[in-house]
Amino acid sequence: MELVEAIILAVLAASTPLLIAATGELVAERSGVLNLGVEGMMIVGAACGFAGAWLTGSIFIGALFGIIAGTLMSLIFALMALGLAVNQVATGLALTILGIGLSGLIGAGFVGERISPAVHLHIPGLTDIPLIGRVLFGEDGFVYVSIALIVGVWWFLYRTRAGLILRACGDNHVSAHALGYPVLRIRTFAVMFGGACAGLAGAYLPLAYTPFFIPGMTAGRGWIALALVVFSSWRPGRLVVGAYLFGAVTILQLHAQGWGVGIPSQFMSALPYLATVIVLVLLSRARTGGSTAPAALGTVFVPDR
Amino acid sequence: MRKSLLALAAGLLLAGSVSAASAADKLKVGFIYLGPIGDLGWTYQHDVGRQALVKELGDKIETTYLENVPEGPDAERSIEQLVRAGNKLIFTTSFGYMDPTLKVAKKYPNVHFEHATGYKRNPNMSTYSAKWYQGRYIQGLIAAKMSKSGVLGYIGSFPIPEVVSGINATMLAAQTINPNIKVKIIWANTWFDPGKEADAAKALIDQGADVIMQHTDSPAAMQIASERGKLAFGQDSEMIKFGPKTQLTSILDTWGPYYIERVKAELAGTWKSEDTWGGLDSHMFAMAPYTNMPDDVKKMAEDAQAAITAGKLHPFKCPIVGQDGKPVECKGGDRLDDGQILGMNFYVKGIDDKLPGK
User: Does the keyword field hold ATP-binding (chain A) (predicted)?
Assistant: First the structure.
């Protein structure tokens, strides 16, 4: 029983950065912008998040630093891809390369330092319930924030007028523009939200997951977040399924190796990717079929005035 | 004002060209690094070696390094770049640079190359590596003494001979203390992913391991062991900062003496292609202080280290029994020979796991 609880806790920890980063990217993509710079924004968020926490001794301020850093990175993207209408794919890739270099520079002075990680919630009585106590009432703040974020985004996209307008920009920017909506401004906000989430997701790594900073510590999680958005067919509900499934298979394959199941470890390492692809393909086949991507995704929009 | 500025600029230019001229007389030594120098592990230790080199011979040489160079064909360009920049001795510090280094070495016969941990050589290309399994053997002795549960947790990177021989050396040592010792092995299939390394450490501890050993590069596993009140060994570098009450010891890569020796040979014109595979006796690596253990265990570790250094104790001393229960052929007389260790692709008896790909 204790092992089951430990596994669930590890799964939540592994899935949380993916979920946060993917939530931000989902909003950006629903507005029609493909920002491939998630990895770069994340790693800068990790460096600045650690720097903030180390300098002030506060995890909260560290997280704030991460959010601000991610947002600033996304503004570079917005300036290039939206303001100057540069190709989004190229800009996003450049942003990742820039981010990896920049984070190394920012973090250079902090390599080898350590901080005490984010505290976990503890409610006497509730947290001590066997099996579910620590899972529900004993997480760090990031886990709760990630769930609040995805629920908030779902509500915003499907239950508010602003969300409808944002989706309209993503599906047909010409019509949205003709109706008088400021397409570029809306997209800029969406990109900034994506950057803030990526920065927070990056900050989660050195503030809660592994409390130290090392260059390159995101190790490709930004790319996985991007893939999750595609496989979720741009739906918040499926994104949650995808992120937790990916985390679950990642952790379970490690445990399976420890138990000595006898399946080649190389295959086990590939399993999270495989399982996520299969489940999400099945999910999207089951209902609609066909492409569910925002119709204007990745296309340049220059308003005619 | 403008004139004086121009004069200043001209003066600076002149100064610049003068220093460049004097630099041209110095031997240029280049390094290719796999990771960032701040990785606190593999690349960091190579750079510590380079710094030791600069400290010792700084007046005669000039060093350049390229970091974050991916393994594989892409590395070729980076190595050539160093050649064209005038470097006469180039160290390529990861296994995956083997073929690119060889290719460039054949193209530039007047430049000398040194490739770490590989096996392909050329008249102008040496190889160098360390017998880390000796350190793993000492760790195995300590682990068996310190483990209360009798279960060790081992995080591997990739199932290559270097890692497999480390696991075997650990277990052969541990079995001399506790014949029933168990090891749980998790392959991360990466050298560096702090999150995944931490997850692997969590899984091992959750499954009952109380001493964690790693053959991956970040201090994440050490930190998890520290959080959970378990014990662990560092890797490549000193990691005690991440587990002051956790680290038992760590295998420290100490490349400095080797780099100094080779550059001295180059300066003296006596450099030739060699294969160096040094152990504790030749200071290719060192053991971090033995900490967080009782005095008798510490003494045992120190004695074992002295015996290995003196050549009295060999980790792969025969008879060695494979997983199938059959003794392994002893090509080195009373021990396995270097070729058997360098190509090790089997587990010894007592490891209840299957080697991936076997």
Answer: no
